[in-house]
């Protein structure tokens, strides 16, 4: 699509990218040719195999995501965020329910005082993922985050599967934090943590404790998120500063009441307990990917994103480890409270007044997590809707606020509904699966980006790359499966699987030449760091309970049903109408080495669209 075509489509040319302000007609949800009549739809279903092959094999281009896809929202998001905003968004997004709630549960029942090592393992995995996200966010600074990155490197279908899990991650994460907010609010009111819950005995155990306060909190966050991104940033900054002060108070005051005897039995549940906890505590690091979705609103992505993402993750990991140490030094691990561990710990050491400070700080932290999550998830959904994999009505950006109001309201409505019914334990495990799955895909996409470029990578090098990636995935999966199903500590299988992983990674480093160098900021030690990220993420997946995988499988089935009946045909029609489907020709030209002309054409189109808007 040229810039003129894009503008025409957006302004009433009748194209798939057409927008109608705040109207809610059928064409705002299903404007594509396949849904114009029942006959068209039946024919589209018959063509499903052909269309699926096209979407499976077609990869997007950087310039397509940066200009054409972004232009489908008609109005630009406002570029008003700096690295300082991103650091505080990162801190606000991450430090919340994970540390204030799950730490107690994991320390008491799964890992004991060694929970600090669980945070280290999760933190290393999160930091590796941060590196991968940063390189992509610098080079493709759009609201789609990992969805856009996967569309460019792994194709439409894999991007959609990841997108569904991204949305699930945000909805579940928000619901979990909202329910935790209620628990700490009850503590602040000097009540039991489940005081405000409504118990319905006729409903299943995990879904029978209703939480109306969580719904109210989510509604307030929704209002803040739709008004202004910069306004949300200011609120987040103030709340996060207060939150950091409270964390420093907990650490300093906690160490004054520390008893090293509580560390006498450091690993009561063994090494297996450490890794089981790390898989669940990965939930505590969820949220930094929301910062990458703000790249489109960042003044200088090349400078601001690396500082914002990496800086906030370093601060967060250090804070988590110190808080975990303090908690287990204050109380013997069997006595740690599951729901409000820090508040109860201070009460146990004779500082009852401090529990109110902790509860207030926790509420501040969880409020910022909800706010940043709301901002991030709406931008994910907006970019997904721009491709028409979701209804294009969700891609609309309000001309005055510069925020995606429709996407924000829909995502937070889903969050409120889930948070009203579902227990925190169910939410945390399911969230960790979705998050780890997405992060390993992003790491895989980074290896593909560095080592495969159409027209430059030879067939032999491509085949070597595929073989090595297959071995990395297979060895990592074998290690995780054995860890998950075995009850003994036999080390022989690891002597087989780990050298295979090492050899496959070394094979890429030695035998496959890099086809693309990062333009501005790049992950160091490629392919070792992304390969290690893949291995750790898969290994942590092997530590999650089977029931959570069943729920994950059910959600994936729902995603695939939606995709094959709606998303596939809508995105196929949109790509065909806009000219994006001519990417096949683009790849043919790229194979012939004509990359510069294609990039220049796309860039020119993007500039034209932006000027017209």
UniProtKB/TrEMBL annotation:
<feature type="transmembrane region" description="Helical">
    <location>
        <begin position="114"/>
        <end position="136"/>
    </location>
</feature>
<feature type="transmembrane region" description="Helical">
    <location>
        <begin position="491"/>
        <end position="513"/>
    </location>
</feature>
<dbReference type="InterPro" id="IPR002293">
    <property type="entry name" value="AA/rel_permease1"/>
</dbReference>
<keyword id="KW-0472">Membrane</keyword>
<dbReference type="Pfam" id="PF13906">
    <property type="entry name" value="AA_permease_C"/>
</dbReference>
<dbReference type="Pfam" id="PF13520">
    <property type="entry name" value="AA_permease_2"/>
</dbReference>
<feature type="transmembrane region" description="Helical">
    <location>
        <begin position="275"/>
        <end position="295"/>
    </location>
</feature>
<feature type="transmembrane region" description="Helical">
    <location>
        <begin position="465"/>
        <end position="485"/>
    </location>
</feature>
<comment type="similarity">
    <text>Belongs to the amino acid-polyamine-organocation (APC) superfamily. Cationic amino acid transporter (CAT) (TC 2.A.3.3) family.</text>
</comment>
<feature type="transmembrane region" description="Helical">
    <location>
        <begin position="307"/>
        <end position="333"/>
    </location>
</feature>
<keyword id="KW-1133">Transmembrane helix</keyword>
<feature type="transmembrane region" description="Helical">
    <location>
        <begin position="235"/>
        <end position="255"/>
    </location>
</feature>
<feature type="transmembrane region" description="Helical">
    <location>
        <begin position="427"/>
        <end position="453"/>
    </location>
</feature>
<dbReference type="InterPro" id="IPR029485">
    <property type="entry name" value="CAT_C"/>
</dbReference>
<feature type="transmembrane region" description="Helical">
    <location>
        <begin position="353"/>
        <end position="381"/>
    </location>
</feature>
<feature type="transmembrane region" description="Helical">
    <location>
        <begin position="81"/>
        <end position="102"/>
    </location>
</feature>
<feature type="transmembrane region" description="Helical">
    <location>
        <begin position="520"/>
        <end position="540"/>
    </location>
</feature>
<feature type="domain" description="Cationic amino acid transporter C-terminal">
    <location>
        <begin position="521"/>
        <end position="571"/>
    </location>
</feature>
<protein>
    <recommendedName>
        <fullName>Cationic amino acid transporter C-terminal domain-containing protein</fullName>
    </recommendedName>
</protein>
<feature type="transmembrane region" description="Helical">
    <location>
        <begin position="552"/>
        <end position="572"/>
    </location>
</feature>
<feature type="transmembrane region" description="Helical">
    <location>
        <begin position="210"/>
        <end position="228"/>
    </location>
</feature>
<keyword id="KW-0812">Transmembrane</keyword>
<feature type="transmembrane region" description="Helical">
    <location>
        <begin position="402"/>
        <end position="421"/>
    </location>
</feature>
<feature type="region of interest" description="Disordered">
    <location>
        <begin position="1"/>
        <end position="20"/>
    </location>
</feature>
<feature type="transmembrane region" description="Helical">
    <location>
        <begin position="157"/>
        <end position="178"/>
    </location>
</feature>
């Amino acid at each position: 699509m040229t810039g003129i075509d894009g503008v025409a489509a957006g302004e009433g040319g009748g194209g798939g990218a057409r927008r109608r302000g705040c109207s809610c007609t059928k064409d705002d949800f299903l404007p594509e040719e396949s849904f114009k009549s029942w006959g068209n739809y039946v024919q589209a279903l018959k063509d499903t195999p052909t269309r699926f092959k096209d979407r499976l094999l077609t990869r997007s281009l950087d310039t397509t995501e940066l200009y054409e896809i972004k232009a489908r929202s008609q109005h630009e998001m406002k570029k008003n965020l700096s690295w300082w905003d991103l650091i505080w968004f990162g801190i606000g997004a991450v430090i919340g329910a994970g540390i204030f709630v799950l730490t107690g549960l994991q320390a008491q029942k799964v890992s004991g005082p060694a929970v600090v090592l669980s945070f280290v393992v999760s933190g290393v995995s999160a930091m590796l993922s941060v590196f991968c996200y940063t390189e992509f966010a610098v080079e493709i600074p759009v609201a789609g985050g990992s969805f856009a990155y996967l569309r460019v490197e792994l194709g439409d279908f894999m991007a959609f599967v990841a997108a569904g899990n991204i949305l699930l991650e945000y909805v579940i994460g928000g619901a979990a934090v909202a329910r935790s907010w209620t628990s700490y609010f009850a503590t602040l009111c000097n009540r039991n943590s489940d005081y405000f819950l409504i118990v319905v005995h006729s409903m299943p155990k995990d879904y029978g404790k209703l939480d109306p306060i969580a719904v109210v909190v989510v509604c307030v966050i929704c209002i803040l998120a739709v008004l202004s991104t910069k306004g949300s940033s200011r609120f987040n900054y103030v709340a996060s500063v207060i939150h950091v002060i409270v964390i420093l108070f907990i650490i300093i005051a906690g160490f004054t009441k520390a008893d090293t005897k509580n560390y006498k039995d450091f690993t009561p549940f063994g090494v297996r307990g450490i890794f089981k906890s790390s898989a669940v505590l990965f939930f505590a690091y969820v949220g930094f990917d929301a910062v990458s979705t703000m790249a489109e609103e960042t003044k200088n992505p090349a400078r601001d994103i690396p500082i914002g993402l990496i800086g906030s993750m370093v601060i967060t990991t250090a804070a988590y480890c110190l808080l975990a140490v303090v908690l287990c030094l204050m109380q013997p691990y069997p006595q740690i409270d599951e729901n409000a561990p820090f508040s109860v710990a201070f009460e146990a050491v004779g500082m009852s007044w401090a529990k109110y400070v902790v509860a207030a700080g926790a509420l501040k932290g969880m409020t910022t997590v909800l706010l940043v999550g709301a901002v991030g998830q709406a931008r994910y959904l907006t970019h997904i809707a721009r491709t028409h994999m979701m209804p294009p009505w969700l891609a609309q950006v309000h001309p005055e606020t510069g925020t995606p109001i429709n996407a924000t309201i829909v995502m937070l409505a889903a969050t409120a509904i889930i948070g009203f019914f579902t227990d925190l334990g169910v939410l945390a495990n399911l969230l960790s699966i979705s998050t780890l799955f997405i992060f390993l895909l992003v790491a895989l996409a980074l290896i593909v980006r560095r080592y495969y470029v159409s027209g430059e990578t030879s067939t032999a090098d491509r085949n070597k790359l595929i073989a090595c990636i297959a071995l990395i995935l297979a060895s990592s999966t074998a290690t995780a499966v054995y860890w998950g199903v075995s009850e003994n500590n036999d080390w022989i299988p690891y002597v087989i699987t780990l050298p295979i992983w090492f050899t496959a990674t070394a094979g890429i480093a030695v035998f496959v030449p890099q086809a693309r160098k990062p333009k501005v900021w790049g992950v160091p030690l490629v392919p070792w760091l992304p390969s290690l990220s893949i291995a750790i993420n898969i290994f942590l997946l092997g530590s999650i309970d089977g029931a959570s995988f069943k729920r994950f499988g059910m959600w994936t089935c729902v995603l695939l049903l939606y995709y094959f009946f709606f998303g596939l045909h809508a995105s196929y029609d949109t790509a065909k109408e806009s000219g994006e489907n001519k990417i096949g020709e683009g790849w043919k030209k790229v194979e012939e080495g004509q990359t510069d002309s294609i990039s220049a054409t796309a860039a020119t189109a993007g500039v034209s669209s932006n000027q017209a808007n």
